[in-house]
Amino acid sequence: MVKRIINAAIFGYFALFVALTLALGFRWHTQRKAPEQPINYSHEIHVGKLGLECLFCHTTADKSTFAGVPPVETCMNCHVGVKTESPEIQKLTKYWNDKEPVPWNRVHRIRIRNHVYFSHERHVKKGIECAQCHGELGAMAKVRAVSSLKMGWCVSCHEAEGAPTDCLICHK
Amino acid sequence: MDRREFLGWLGVASGASLLAGCDLTRKSEKIIPYLVPPEDGAIPGDATYVSSSCGECPGSCGVTARIRDDRPVKVDGLAGHPVNDGALCLRGQASLNRLYNVDRIRQPLMQDGSGQLVPGTWNQVLAKAAEAIKAPGEHALMSGRTSGSLNLLMDEFATRTSVRRLPEFELLSYAAVREANRSLFDRAVLPAVHPDRADVVITVGADVLDTYGHPVAFAGALAKKRDAGGHFDWYHVEPHVSMTGFKATHRVTARPGSEAFVLAYLLRAVAGKRAIDSRMTAHLQSVPAVDAARAEQATGIPAATLDAMATALAGAHHPLVIAGGVSTAQETGLDVARLAALLQSACGMLGDTVDLGRVGDWSRVGSLSDIDRLTTRLEAGQVGTLILFNIDPVAQLPDGDKFGKALDRAAFLVGVGDVMTPTLERCDVVLPLSHNLESWGDAEPVSGVVNAIQPAFKPLFDTLADGDILMRLMGEISGTAMPSYQQYVLDRWSRDYGASAAAELIKVGFISLPVNASSSATLREPDHRWSFDSAAPVKGATLVVAPSPRWYDGRSRALDLLNEIPDPMAAVTWGDYVSVGLETATALGVADQSEIELRAGGWSGRYTVRRQPGLARDVFVVQRGAGRPGLGWSRTSGEANAVAWDVSVASTGMKKPVGIVSGSLFDDGRGMVPGSHPEHFGALGRITKEHAHGGGHEMKREDTTFYPVPNYPHYRWAMAIDMEKCVGCSACVAACYIENNIPMVGLEQHLKGREMGWIRLEPYYAEDGSKLDTVPAMCQHCDYAPCEPVCPVYATYHNDEGLNAQVYNRCVGTRYCGNNCSYKQRRFNFFSYEHREHPLNLMTNPDVSMRGKGMMEKCTFCVQRIRKARDIAKDENRMIEEGDVTPACVQACPGKAMVFGNLLDEKSEVYQWAHSSRSTRLLEELGTSPGVYYLKKGNGHDA
């Protein structure tokens, strides 16, 4: 009797493990999905249809380590008058009138960011197209990460392109 | 259980431990954009700079604040500033800690009636203060030393509100020197000095490298002098020990209270060899005769030394004599100051090395006789409202308790300050002060130089700048709206300096104006009776209360960083300690960490012993800010006494540990002091072995090591440190702490040897205490680093630019590397120090990552700065050039003792220094081939 309970416990334990692995796998899959954003901004419309350049909004991508997202003022430059009847634009205008910056959810995350240094400026100046790492934004209604952004992925490109692979380059 | 069951349980246990590694709590991260892009065009990730003035001591050095993420993250000296020229002392570096001090008063406070201070609003406290000032009575305002616009505004305040300005309060007031200059030259000033012009310097008590005058300027001038070459001799006379003394060429110990005899002897000896006029002769005749024998008997200094000093002084072309510090802060202090001034006049120093025209504005600073008068008036109930403006007399005065009780007799007390102090606790309302980096204003370090004080960002808390507090008070009292202090300052600059100078003040941070006052003066008739020869002789043990290099007069002790950084002479961090001579300690039967009790007059205090080589028998030294020794004050000079004798000393038998972070006070023949083993080492990795028999046997490195010769294609980052120029001030240590987000771990961890400073000054004394070498030591970035091969996960390696790299992600915390480092320069995060309490969490440099628990860290040669320089160089399509990269320590050094650069560049300064004949490396015989070169102390001045 006791033996059966122990057997069941051990079996149950490893089953739990399998379930956990499946759950983690599901989570991994959802991680790659586009997260919900406070305003349903569509790159498809702005980049795909209207043809805006990446650097028009993400101005610091070739000047600084951070590309960041544009200040709310950049959006309002057009949307003070364009398509103001859309509920998403009205959400934007509300943020602007409340003097509250839009709290976007970060899509491209390096997992252990603390000790990794990544400079957008260096990569953009090297002539790497935005789409190479970020995918065809012009086809995305919602932004999602197409690359894993893991170290192996970074190193594979560095090795292929002849960029330095010294640890201190990124882990300074 | 049987084997099968056991294996089953083993599987469960290992599986469970795997689960512990999962992190299911990762929440989504936000990106918050700007609402409107910043108007100065600042790009996130790039730094902007604002020039301002340091307010940590009355020196007012020019500083530049580096602003990242809309907040200042580093304070450095302003390059080209006439006083500090790019360097900044440890207190100035730590002034950032004052800005982000966890203990800052965050909003106005007022008494609630039951003796408690409770938060209030500015309107409430200003209304209360205004009401008290408008009430009938005699109201007064007392501040610390002010200059520039704040001084003018205070005068205006006094006129408009009929609040009387009392003499300004500074504990280290230079009252004796100013009074001596007044009575002898009719110029009650603290003169500037030019040590770079001098060939013989004699300082009596004046700790010119610690706190006296402008220590950063003095160290810089010494560096210039040493670079220029030529004869230079410096005698420092003191009754105790100070870093200044150890860095002078000759440190002369005088019996406490006898310094006047030294100066009187020198005056006689020199006057005999120089042409002097009749007025000087009259003065000389009034000075009691002190010949060599009498001087030796009174001071305990051998006649030969005294004679050497006299000869040097007499033969000097540009001598410099400075008296101050503890030697002028005793009963005979005024005599000491006068004798020094007479020497200055007799030897023609006035107008040459001593500049009476270029002075700090100490004209309104009073002395303790003014405090005495105020105390009497307070006790008689004659004071109505008293505004205590950013001063802490209760904590600093020798009889601070008495003053505190007297304060309670005032009708109303208005306190202005940034942290709670014993003075502010007694106030009826507390008006919180903004930091210099949150304020507008200006300061004048010396006449002719004006520093702008400009804010780096908006105040963190509900505080106001000093000028704004006065403006608001004036407005409340008069009922009219007053302009902001910013407006007042800008208007005054335009009015008094002109529009272009005003623009320069904002852009550059300082302006230099012509000085009209004469740099020399004529001697007046003698009107003084000398008392030093009839003063009661010293008996028993002596207590010296010395100004503190870390805390100044005690005001900077509120900053945690200045407790975390060890005192450079004693290597003690946290705790109140007393320096005890080696012989004295043995005689008392005490050792380090023992507790003793000192009694002087009515005062007693308990301190922990720290043995101090070089300290005379039965002399005990305590620093200002460590307790409050009540030694009274001198009625003749008005200075707080720094020396007391007939002190009773007794061991309490207990141990009260303080943070001693040095293993041994002595080198013990290990060769840790660069150049102390001349028979072993040569420069640049060429191990030369000279046997006693048969000439030299030179072995090249390639012969003697099996390691591959390192191949550096473009750069080999290296550092060189000149031991001759290092003044042991620890500015490098403070700069490193702030630049690299080094955690402050506290006393308990220090007692376990877990201090975290990446660079530290290791004090090594000669066995007889006659010499001190302070070795600035950090990760040596060795070619063949012992730490690299032993890391099991390859988290540390040698990169192709000569840096020993530490990759934090990879480190698993084996600590084998720390064990293997021959120089013990690796630090381990035993705890998680990533999360600092607000607002200290803002005192983090975003360019340097915060290390987590279990990670090893060490000096990186400021790789973040190398990185930044490389970015710029890449944009401009060139190599990183000389001067592009300056690590924090190199930038801060007041003595200009450190250089950094590319060793492969033969034109670089580090290459020149590394190839000098004085160049050596630490522990060369281990074959580690370090990247840090030390220029050993030498008698010559060849580069």
User: Assembly state here?
Assistant: heterodimer
* Unreliable stretches covering 5 or more consecutive residues of chain B: 680-703
Strand order of the largest sheet of chain B: 6-5-17-16-15-7-8
| Dominant shape of chain A | extended
Structural class estimated from helices and strands of chain B: alpha/beta
Helix content of chain A: 40-55%
For this entry, give a set of tags.
heterodimer, A: 172 residues, mainly alpha, 9 helices, 50% helix, B: 943 residues, alpha/beta, seven-stranded mixed sheet, 28 helices, 19% strand
Quick summary:
The complex is a heterodimer of chains A (172) and B (943). With 172 residues, chain A is mainly α. Helices cover 50% and strands 1% of the residues of chain A.
Please characterize this protein's 3D structure.
The complex is a heterodimer of chains A (172) and B (943). With 172 residues, chain A is an all-alpha fold. Chain A has helices at residues 2-31, 43-49, 54-57, 72-79, 87-97, 120-125, 130-134, 151-161, 167-170, and one strand at residues 104-105. Chain A is built from 9 helices and 1 strand, in the order αααααβαααα. In chain A, α4 (72-79) crosses α5 (87-97). Chain B is α/β, with parallel strands linked by helices and 943 residues long. A 7-stranded mixed beta sheet of chain B has the order 6-5-17-16-15-7-8. Chain B has a 6-stranded mixed barrel with strand order 21-25-22-24-23-26. The chains are: A mainly alpha (172), B alpha/beta (943). The interface between A and B is large, with 44 and 40 residues.
Write the layout of secondary structure elements.
The complex is a heterodimer of chains A (172) and B (943).
Chain A: H1 2-31, H2 43-49, H3 54-57, H4 72-79, H5 87-97, E1 104-105, H6 120-125, H7 130-134, H8 151-161, H9 167-170
Helix pairs in contact in A: 4-5
Chain B: H1 3-19, E1 30-31, E2 48-53, E3 62-68, E4 71-77, H2 90-99, E5 109-111, E6 117-119, H3 122-134, E7 140-143, H4 148-161, E8 164-165, H5 175-185, E9 190-193, E10 200-204, H6 215-228, E11 233-238, H7 243-247, E12 250-253, H8 259-271, H9 278-286, H10 292-299, H11 303-315, E13 319-323, H12 333-346, E14 354-360, H13 368-379, E15 385-389, H14 393-396, H15 400-407, E16 412-417, H16 422-425, E17 429-432, E18 441-443, E19 449-453, H17 466-478, H18 485-497, H19 499-507, E20 510-512, E21 541-546, H20 561-564, E22 577-580, H21 582-588, E23 594-600, E24 603-611, E25 619-623, E26 643-655, E27 688-690, E28 696-698, H22 701-704, E29 717-722, H23 731-739, H24 747-751, E30 760-765, E31 772-777, E32 796-798, E33 804-806, H25 816-820, E34 827-828, E35 856-857, H26 863-875, H27 888-892, E36 898-902, H28 909-914, E37 919-920, E38 932-935
Parallel strand pairs in B: 7-8, 7-15, 10-11, 10-13, 11-12, 15-16, 16-17, 21-25, 22-24, 29-38
Antiparallel strand pairs in B: 2-3, 3-4, 5-6, 5-17, 9-14, 18-19, 19-20, 21-26, 22-25, 23-24, 23-26, 27-28, 29-36, 30-31, 32-33, 34-35, 37-38
Helix pairs in contact in B: 2-23, 3-17, 4-17, 5-12, 8-10, 8-11, 8-12, 13-15, 18-19
